[in-house]
Automatic annotation (TrEMBL), chain A:
<protein>
    <recommendedName>
        <fullName>S-adenosyl-L-methionine-dependent methyltransferase</fullName>
        <ecNumber>2.1.1.-</ecNumber>
    </recommendedName>
</protein>
<keyword id="KW-0489">Methyltransferase</keyword>
<comment type="similarity">
    <text>Belongs to the UPF0677 family.</text>
</comment>
<dbReference type="InterPro" id="IPR007213">
    <property type="entry name" value="Ppm1/Ppm2/Tcmp"/>
</dbReference>
<dbReference type="InterPro" id="IPR011610">
    <property type="entry name" value="SAM_mthyl_Trfase_ML2640-like"/>
</dbReference>
<dbReference type="GO" id="GO:0008168">
    <property type="term" value="F:methyltransferase activity"/>
</dbReference>
<dbReference type="Pfam" id="PF04072">
    <property type="entry name" value="LCM"/>
</dbReference>
<comment type="function">
    <text>Exhibits S-adenosyl-L-methionine-dependent methyltransferase activity.</text>
</comment>
<keyword id="KW-0949">S-adenosyl-L-methionine</keyword>
Automatic annotation (TrEMBL), chain B:
<protein>
    <submittedName>
        <fullName>Acyl carrier protein</fullName>
    </submittedName>
</protein>
<feature type="domain" description="Carrier">
    <location>
        <begin position="4"/>
        <end position="82"/>
    </location>
</feature>
<dbReference type="InterPro" id="IPR036736">
    <property type="entry name" value="ACP-like_sf"/>
</dbReference>
<dbReference type="InterPro" id="IPR009081">
    <property type="entry name" value="PP-bd_ACP"/>
</dbReference>
<dbReference type="Pfam" id="PF00550">
    <property type="entry name" value="PP-binding"/>
</dbReference>
Length: 285, 82
């Protein structure tokens, strides 16, 4: 498995420990098995930047957002982008008629499937693995797998954007928006730009760099970044706020107006109203 | 300012740290708070607000030199020794 897959084992290790807490935010019975072989070692290596607490809070925020959005909107097509060792397909209750697509590297998807099969674990939603590189033409692969770009979609991009450059992150959001009819949804997390340059995060960031999985992108204006790439924010929270692990998060929530603060953003967004293409606008006027 | 008042103020900062780390009973004046993970990137903001409150000195987090708050001795020297 390649390096990004080791970070998938790391977040699985976080989910395993959270599952074992009496006040855990969720349960993931498969996480301990999926965290092997390196997850727990990396947990120790990346300790100290609050990332474990963040992954726990983020997992629950995204679980809740997924369930809420499917319930409220009637969307029945879900794409999990580079979701690694995440097993929402096996953990959550899914409305009848939903199809989930998991887009990730082939070796990772195969490994996850093999481990889950060994546990006799069955998905609770029809799940289509799409073996593709998000840096390549993954959308064509997704369509070939049965994804319908004319159908409203819920996209989940968890723990993904900070591994991309700003340009790649923007292009990914635009690709996703371009394959989404109006009233589609996106659930995503980002880090603040200040986190990437803050002196207190440098040892953590250096370890990620040394391991070949650097964090590259963050923004202090998540609303603006999403708007610029086709999405309008419906819900934005920082960890520790109500609905985002308010009793679990062990830190104070920094006020939004404080500058230069390392922070994380948990976001639910809807496709932005796009201006009509010029030829359509001409016809209508 | 007398020595005694300065000491009381640094104790407020030490108490804040100890309250967050129940396994600790003391913090050395020269102990590196960052390396020992007594203060991390997430508690940092609250920590800086605390130093502001205790010292009455306004701190710009964008320009703060981290070495000024790395140890209790440094905090005392840069923010409390007025």
């Amino acid at each position: 498995m390649d390096d990004i897959s080791y970070t998938a084992q790391w977040t699985a290790a976080v989910r395993a420990l959270e599952t074992e807490r009496s006040d855990g935010l969720f349960r993931d019975e498969y996480a301990r098995c999926l965290a092997e072989p390196r997850g727990f070692e990396l947990l120790d290596r990346y300790r100290g930047a609050g990332v474990s607490d963040f992954v726990a809070v983020r997992t629950r925020y995204m679980d809740d957002a997924l369930t809420r959005i499917l319930g409220e909107t009637g969307i029945r097509q879900v794409v999990l982008l580079a979701n690694g060792m995440d097993v929402r397909t096996h953990r959550l209750d899914w409305p009848a008629g939903t199809t989930a697509y998991e887009v990730d590297h082939g070796p990772l998807l195969d490994e996850k499937q093999a481990r889950l099969a060994a546990l006799a674990a069955e998905p609770r939603v029809p799940t289509v693995p799409i073996r593709a590189d998000l840096a390549g033409d993954w959308l064509e692969a997704l369509k070939s797998g049965g994804f319908d770009p004319a159908e409203r979609t819920l996209w989940i991009a968890e723990g993904l954007l900070f591994f991309l450059t700003e340009e790649q992150a923007g292009r990914l959001l635009e690709t996703v928006a371009g394959a989404s009819p109006p009233e589609s949804r996106l659930v995503v997390d980002m880090t603040s730009a200040a986190l990437l340059r803050h002196p207190m995060t440098q040892s953590f960031l250096r370890r990620l760099r040394e391991d070949g999985t650097p964090w590259r992108f963050g923004t202090d204006d998540p609303e603006g970044f999403l708007t610029a790439h086709g999405w309008a924010v419906e819900d934005l929270r920082q960890p520790g706020e109500p609905g985002a692990g308010e009793r679990r998060w062990p830190y104070a929530v920094p006020p939004r107006e404080a500058r230069g603060v390392p922070r994380s953003w948990l976001i639910s967004a809807v496709t932005a109203d796009r201006p009509l293409p010029p030829e359509m606008a001409t016809v209508l006027t | 300012m007398t020595q005694q008042q300065t000491t009381a103020r640094i104790d407020q900062i030490k108490e804040w740290i100890l309250a967050k780390h129940k396994n600790r009973t003391d913090v050395g004046v020269d102990e590196d708070l960052v390396d020992s993970r007594l203060v991390d990137s997430l508690s940092f903001v609250e920590f800086v607000f605390l130093i502001q409150e205790v010292s009455g000195v306004e701190i710009d987090m964008d320009t703060l030199n981290i070495s000024d708050i790395r140890t209790l001795a440094a905090i005392e020297k840069h923010f409390l020794a007025t």
